[in-house]
Amino acid sequence: MIGWEDVYKVVVAMAPLYFALILGFGSVRWWHIFTPEQCGAINRFVCFFTLPLFTFEFTAHVDPFEWNYRFIAADAISKLIIVVVLAFWAKCSSKGSYSWSITSFSLCTLTNSLVVGVPLMKAMYGPMAVDLVVQSSVVQAIVWLTVLLFVLEFRRTGLDISSGSSNDTRVQSVEQGGKDLDGTNESTLASPSYYYWSLMKGVWLKLGMNPNSYAVFVGIAWAFIANRWHIELPSIMEGSVLIMSKAGTGTAMFSMGIFMALQEKFVACGTSLAIIGMILRFTAGPAAMAIGSIAVGLHGDVLRVAIIQAALPQSITSFIYAKEYGLHAEVLSTAVIFGMMVSLPVLIAYFAVLEFVH
């Protein structure tokens, strides 16, 4: 049972995040330390340096040979359910869109497992729950954040090609009915297959230059090697990674504070979208996880942990990616900030209700 001491531990884990957030907000809104251009540079620093090193550090220290693969399968099924529903909505609904499907996927599935999940789950169900939450976080980094990164890059590269900013294509020729500026017929350039391969080439080239796309794979590869042959990362490498990775969560929250300060309103996305985001965060993910868990036969405390960890607050990484790729960052920032505020009573309510589930 959760006591006041356990609640205090969770609050202690969350308070430093808001401290970093307030510092970022104040540095722009109150003290005018950074210009908008410098704010963009700070977000890119977080995205391309502290975040991938943070991801590598926690991934490299897990033991994949001890994972609960039935739990991981339930998580995969739940994510696929969300993907199918969003794809159907985007294709069949007049209000559906590819861009909002990406954002909705983030809101429904991507959680802040390590900062909030670990202390709360330890209080609820003990070390077993902590192991499951860490497993979920690693799989999220390996699979789902990588998928998110790919579709965001795919979207941005497609927009670049369509606007004529990409060097893999000559859009002006296509817009002129297959005629180049010098009158040469360029209808090969205008074919769908050429556009597709130009798009994919651009996506893979950009992902190859983004350390987030491979940091997690290097980390999990090292985890397999280290646990198979019982070796440790050389201390000089460990120290080099730690000095940057320890700043990962703090600098991400600092960047979010900066982003908030640049907006005209505190709830930048508006009240309606904020409410929708909270509903998706705390209901859609757990509901899909319940279906996936039942499908693979989870029961008891493992089932309870699976559902509750799916209701953890929004992933900070999802905001950093949204800001970098210019897709509904205001929605994700609101989800992170208010999600952490309301998560404790919501998660305790889930805990109380699930005590009646056998």
UniProtKB/TrEMBL annotation:
<feature type="transmembrane region" description="Helical">
    <location>
        <begin position="214"/>
        <end position="231"/>
    </location>
</feature>
<dbReference type="InterPro" id="IPR051107">
    <property type="entry name" value="Auxin_Efflux_Carrier"/>
</dbReference>
<comment type="function">
    <text>May act as a component of the auxin efflux carrier.</text>
</comment>
<protein>
    <recommendedName>
        <fullName>Auxin efflux carrier component</fullName>
    </recommendedName>
</protein>
<comment type="similarity">
    <text>Belongs to the auxin efflux carrier (TC 2.A.69.1) family.</text>
</comment>
<feature type="transmembrane region" description="Helical">
    <location>
        <begin position="102"/>
        <end position="120"/>
    </location>
</feature>
<feature type="transmembrane region" description="Helical">
    <location>
        <begin position="42"/>
        <end position="61"/>
    </location>
</feature>
<feature type="transmembrane region" description="Helical">
    <location>
        <begin position="12"/>
        <end position="30"/>
    </location>
</feature>
<feature type="transmembrane region" description="Helical">
    <location>
        <begin position="274"/>
        <end position="296"/>
    </location>
</feature>
<dbReference type="GO" id="GO:0005783">
    <property type="term" value="C:endoplasmic reticulum"/>
</dbReference>
<keyword id="KW-0927">Auxin signaling pathway</keyword>
<dbReference type="GO" id="GO:0005886">
    <property type="term" value="C:plasma membrane"/>
</dbReference>
<dbReference type="InterPro" id="IPR014024">
    <property type="entry name" value="Auxin_eff_plant"/>
</dbReference>
<feature type="region of interest" description="Disordered">
    <location>
        <begin position="164"/>
        <end position="185"/>
    </location>
</feature>
<feature type="transmembrane region" description="Helical">
    <location>
        <begin position="243"/>
        <end position="262"/>
    </location>
</feature>
<keyword id="KW-0812">Transmembrane</keyword>
<dbReference type="GO" id="GO:0009926">
    <property type="term" value="P:auxin polar transport"/>
</dbReference>
<feature type="transmembrane region" description="Helical">
    <location>
        <begin position="67"/>
        <end position="90"/>
    </location>
</feature>
<feature type="compositionally biased region" description="Polar residues">
    <location>
        <begin position="164"/>
        <end position="175"/>
    </location>
</feature>
<dbReference type="InterPro" id="IPR004776">
    <property type="entry name" value="Mem_transp_PIN-like"/>
</dbReference>
<feature type="transmembrane region" description="Helical">
    <location>
        <begin position="334"/>
        <end position="353"/>
    </location>
</feature>
<keyword id="KW-1133">Transmembrane helix</keyword>
<dbReference type="GO" id="GO:0009734">
    <property type="term" value="P:auxin-activated signaling pathway"/>
</dbReference>
<feature type="transmembrane region" description="Helical">
    <location>
        <begin position="132"/>
        <end position="152"/>
    </location>
</feature>
<dbReference type="GO" id="GO:0010329">
    <property type="term" value="F:auxin efflux transmembrane transporter activity"/>
</dbReference>
<keyword id="KW-0813">Transport</keyword>
<keyword id="KW-0472">Membrane</keyword>
<dbReference type="Pfam" id="PF03547">
    <property type="entry name" value="Mem_trans"/>
</dbReference>
